[in-house]
Amino acid sequence: MNSRSEAGSRLTALGTQLLEVHIWLREMLDDLRDNVDDYFAGKGLPPRDLRAHCLSFCTALTRHHTGEDRGAFPAIAEEFPELRKVLSDLRTDHNQLDWLLGNLQKLLDSLPEEPDPAAASRVREELDALSAIMQTHFIYEEKKLISVLNSMDVPEWRENRPGFLLIDDEDGS
Fold it and tell me: I need a surface site. Which of 32, 63, 121, 173 has the fewest CB within 10 A?
């Protein structure tokens, strides 16, 4: 395989990598929801562990969106100026998701050691809202940006995997 083909294969993988990150984040949210349901059923993790799980998910989603806002979106806007409105809409979603994440963290911070039905309703409503916005955001982003990412040549992305494509603790920190 010549170097041009290798670069093309690597670039095409960026769109696939975005899908993989979105799948991973969806799974993390599903796991958090399952753990919350188990807690409220009286058979799950203690609130401290739920807060840690939430923090892990919230950090991963925030890192992904920060990486897009600071790295991917400016590069896309430069090469594809017709997508600036799409990118602006995605940034608006990021702000809304940040707000929902903050609400969820506050609710989990206030969980009592023993499950409370009133708290269950509030936490589940917040998880439902977060899930709905996240799902529609990911679907829209995938529809609009996968082919764009696959067509871009960003040499520094070939050298170092950008933050918006990191899963778990791949960055070594």
Answer: 173
